[in-house]
Amino acid sequence: MPETPPTVRQVPSVRTFHGDSVTDEYAWLAEKDNPETLDYLKAENAWTEKATAHLAGLRDQVFQEIKNRTQETDLSVPGRKGGYWYYTRTVEGKQYGIQCRVAVAPAEVDPPMAEDKPGEEVLLDGNALAEGKDFFALGTFDVSPDGNWLAYSTDFDGDERFTLRVKNLVTGEVLADEVPGTFYGTAWSGDGSALFYITVDDAWRPYRVWRHTVGKPASDDVIVFEETDERFWVGVELTRSEKFIVIDAQSKLTSEVHVIPAETPDAEPVVIAPREQGVEYSIEHHGHRFLILHNKDAEDFALAYTSADAPGEWVELVPHEPGTRLESVDAFARHIVISQRRDGLTGLRVMGDGSTDSYDMPFPEPLYSVGLAGNPEYDTTAVRISYTSMVTPDSIYDVDLVTRQMVLRKQKPVLGGYHPEDYEQFREWARAGDGTKVPISIVARKGVERDGSAPALLYGYGSYEHSIDPYFSIARLSLLDRGVVFAIAHVRGGGEMGRRWYEDGKMLAKKNTFTDFVACAEALVTKGWTSAARLVARGGSAGGLLMGAIANLAPQDFAGIVAQVPFVDPLTSILDPSLPLTVTEWEEWGNPIESTEVYGYMKSYSPYENVAKLAYPKILAVTSLNDTRVLYHEPAKWIARLRATAPDGDYLLKTEMGAGHGGPSGRYDSWKEEAFVTAWVLDVLGLADKKA
Q: Signal peptide: which range, if any (predicted)?
């Protein structure tokens, strides 16, 4: 084992934009096929293993805690579609889920919850598909409307390039007509004769929708739609009513939707409304109309409709209400359900046939997250929802939309004697430098002292209007039961407080994300939850950018930082249009190629470019070699520069050599990864020897 951290060769490479020349001595680490790059990553892994060898027992202990609290042999609540109940099984000792179905019995209304189901069909066994592979992920799992065909796609590298296949569910045969290099998302024609799918361009941008005829070779497939604007992604899906194929083209700011009648899959796509810069919209088919959720003159979105036969004028259905963000709409034969958020919490609004007898579903806890869960059936008066909080395990309810009765179908089992009343959740508010109040969600064991002595972990994200809502975690119990306070900083750039919350944390307001997080950290200290010496920060992906930024901005406020698949060299990446995602990201971060202002602003907060000789907290960076969203070399360069610039610090880099953006794919492997991070956090907090 190595005795010292690895050193890496410095090869000055100059980047020049807008008359500004920047030297990057570690740019060569982007050469993925260079044996020296792989040797360096392996050397970092070896050093990390040595530096954390004393935590091996704790890692095993935390892994066992997660495993022992999890019901390993389990199944999801069956969901009805046509004449079948569909569900997923997990089996003790198996890494992946098993997709199954069973025929609906005569007069059967409630989902069959018994473990043993006579007549069960195994549609897809992830464990069989993954046999002999280091990584496995499903891209699509899509049963045709008649229940006779299954479209599924697999990725064995973690690079999110999937091979699409079709299985005959009547005979069990997997057809020979497979399609490599596909993206997420498929849609069946009404009769199951045609399958629509997506491919990506060289920059990993989903841009083409294809039509495949079942039983024919992929060489016969036809391009149905091609998006030439490099800012836009495309998606494809079948409406819940099974009447239309929907092709959705979206940039960060603008949308355009086309539809094809599902019964005539070779028809030309029809546009619902031509794209208008800055106008986002999505559609749902509902009888004679298309529902349109949009932000035209409606920052927090409004709901309208137009004719399904001849799309044109939009008629208002739910007007814009500032402060109530309408996030999505789901149509059923006699009801509409709107997913919304208000005051930092999610909610569901139900509208009946007349669209006037609306009501909001009530929920009992002060902090929670709720949303629709599945619901493939269109002609129904009941919907399934998922509900959770910081103390309530994931729960599945069926809701009668007429009587408003809620029936709990299943709550995620937590083995080993979990009692929600042993824990408390709180909402605190921090005050940002510009006076903005920033919400913080907190959970802790009852009895934790508010005198600053408790250790704490603060999590943050804050980009893409993605909200980190209150949620339950079995793995988190290993922290809580050792006295750690867990908190989520709902910083600007996310969507927790509506569209304006997002707008105020992107582009030339991006620094609000970072200063909000620091304000939350300092509020936890001021309010007695913890102290800077006992506080660890954690975030991943764009949240990893947040971690790198706060390391430079306020290193004194944290004892440690965990940055997972961190976007820590954003300016270099956004300056390279050939990289995956770059052009589509310009509407999120700004275009530093065109704008000197954006260039200077991004350079001023880029974690990699602002590494300085500071007293940094301990830092653990975790990445994956095959990540196509945040390339591995960003954290690799970051750790190398930290060591060279501030050599007295404690920096670790761990690279998954056979995984992608989400880390290890199997559930046991992901638990081991979580146990690794948890053990490191506990060690930083001085709790390595404390039992749960």
A: none
Mean confidence (pLDDT) of the chain: 96
Q: Please check whether residue 278 is in contact with residue 503, taking contact to mean a CB–CB distance below 8 angstroms.
A: no
For 167, the 3-state DSSP assignment is: strand
What confidence score (pLDDT) does residue 510 get? 98
The radius of gyration of the chain's CA atoms, rounded to the nearest angstrom, is: 25
Whether the pLDDT of residue 503 is over 70: the answer is: yes
What's the pTM? 0.96
Kindly list the distances between the CA atom of residue 392 and the CA atoms of 295, 362, 388, 587, in Å, as whole numbers in the listed order: 34, 16, 5, 37
CB atoms within 10 A of CB 103: 16
Strands 395-400, 406-411: pairing is antiparallel
Structural contact between residues 221 and 188, judged by C-beta atoms closer than 8 angstroms? no
Cβ-in-10-Å burial (0-12, 13-18, 19+) of 451 comes to exposed
What pLDDT band is residue 502 in, cutting at 50, 70 and 90? very high
204: left (phi over 0), alpha (psi -120 to 50) or beta: left
Convert the pLDDT of each residue in 346-368 to its tens digit: 999 999 865 557 899 999 999 99
Sorting pLDDT into bands at 50, 70 and 90, what band is 663?
confident
**Helix 633-645 / helix 35-51 crossing angle, nearest 10 deg:** 60
646 has pLDDT over 90:
yes
Cα–Cα dist 587/429, whole Å: 30
Residues whose CB falls within 8 Å of the CB of residue 287, separated by 6 or more in sequence, listed in order: 241, 308, 333
Q: How far is CA 588 from CA 85, 463, 581, in A?
A: 41, 8, 11
Catalytic positions are: 541, 627, 661
SS3 640: helix
Tell me the CA distances in angstroms from 353 to 287, 301, 358, 412, one per residue in order. Answer: 11, 21, 10, 34
